[in-house]
Amino acid sequence: MSAARFGDLLDRALGLDPKSIGLSAIERAVETRIKACNLKNDDDYWELLRHSRDEVQELIEAVIVPETWFFRDPPAYAAMVGFFLKRVMKGNPSRQQRLLSLPCSTGEEPYTMGMALLDAGVPASRFRVDAIDVSARSLMRARRGIYGRNSFRSKDVAFRERHFQSTEAGYRVNDTVREPVHFRQGNIVDPSLLLGAEPYDIIFCRNLLIYFDTRTQNRTLSLLRGLLAPDGMLFVGHAEAGLMAANGFASAKLPMAFAFLKALAQPVESKAEPATPRSPSSVKPARDRALPAKPSTPVVTSQIAQPAKPGPGLEELRRIADGGRLGEAAQGCEVHIREFGPSPDVFLLMGLIRDAAGDPTGAINYYRKVLYLEPTSSEALHHLALLLKKQGDHLGARLLEERLQRREKRRSR
């Protein structure tokens, strides 16, 4: 199967960079849909996609595997509440504040935004949360508002007693939380999305940008900048913080919240310089381990089928890459992800392979994935800072270097 054309289709439909999840994940999604449609091969399925918008949506649903839970990353919600209260006191106390969750996945994030504000004593009538996602299935689950134990993974689940009712089907969100949250289907790459909408005081767009190519990242941040009120606050994932300075945002300097304000200056697009090839030998061998995909984004690697023959381990893949067989090593990494799932180690190796192959954009995406799964990875911080500096993003590089210095200081204590 040639997965490239299906990857290009998903790129056009979602803004998804096929390299961010690997062509093997797209192949598995296509194979699933071929069987579901009772077709013979991928050529037949391609013809179906060309003439059926509904089937394109089905393929999107096959690629999407939501991974989120309530009160994930508590510092972000604490910062949101503090900003909300300060904003209300400083501004018009009677105005309803507008919040946006994009993508909202299966609803845990927007409902958490509401619960956090209600727990702070804010009446439900004082805020509105617009929750948008490309997945119709995810939105159906969100509107249903019934969740299993997997959605309650935070250390403190006392909020469940306050805001949910226990039912035979699971825990149902109380109507007080549901009332200010409004779900709708929408695609971030659609230029008409939220066209003419009033500005938002608070926007959550976390762990989506890491799955886009540079062009789509810049376009998305430009859209978000336009949607954000002049004195509003934008929350992103920690692996995406390095993108913000070059796109017109300044850090709010709230520890571990990854919150940003509009910078005074307009964003300036930096010109990329070719990266100096680097040997992947700097990857430290680590035991092969499977980690669950963590993003609450609309695209993560799906796990539909396991290969019949296990691929080489990471240490062997590192030796293959060191020997200059970069293509073989990259293919082996995709097999490794299919067998064991995403992990910081395999993403770091893939980043170094892309780096050595002269593909700085691909390398940057993989280094950011490492930092999403393992925010304290010294190797990823170091390599990403070097690449950003080469591309002219000196502020982004400096922020990463400061994180690395703080990391080294903590280790030396």
What does this 3D model show about the protein?
There is one protein chain. This protein has 413 residues and is an alpha/beta fold. It folds into 3 domains: 60 residues, no CATH class; 189 residues, Vaccinia Virus protein VP39 (Rossmann fold, 3-Layer(aba) Sandwich), CATH 3.40.50; 133 residues, Tetratricopeptide repeat domain (Serine Threonine Protein Phosphatase 5, Tetratricopeptide repeat). It contains 16 helices and 10 strands. Strands 6-2-1-7-8-10-9 form a 7-stranded mixed beta sheet. A 3-stranded antiparallel beta sheet has the order 3-5-4. Strand 9 and strand 10 form a beta hairpin. Helix 3 crosses helix 4, helix 11 runs parallel beside helix 13 and helix 14 runs antiparallel to helix 15. The chain is globular. The N and C termini lie far apart (53 Å). About 11% of the residues have low confidence. Keywords: Methyltransferase, S-adenosyl-L-methionine, TPR repeat, Transferase. One of its GO terms (biological process) is methylation.
Query: How many structural domains are formed by the residues?
Result: 3
Pick out the low-confidence regions: 265-308
| CATH fold-level label of the largest domain | Rossmann fold
Query: Helix fraction?
Result: 40-55%
Q: State the fourth-level CATH superfamily of the largest domain.
A: Vaccinia Virus protein VP39
Shape: globular
The helix-strand sequence is HHHHHEHEHEHEEHEEHEEEHHHHHH
- Strand % is 5-15%
**In angstroms, what separates the terminal alpha carbons?**
53 Å
Structural class: alpha/beta
Number of helical regions: 16
Major sheet summary line:
7 strands, mixed
Give the total of beta strands.
10
Radius of gyration: 22 Å
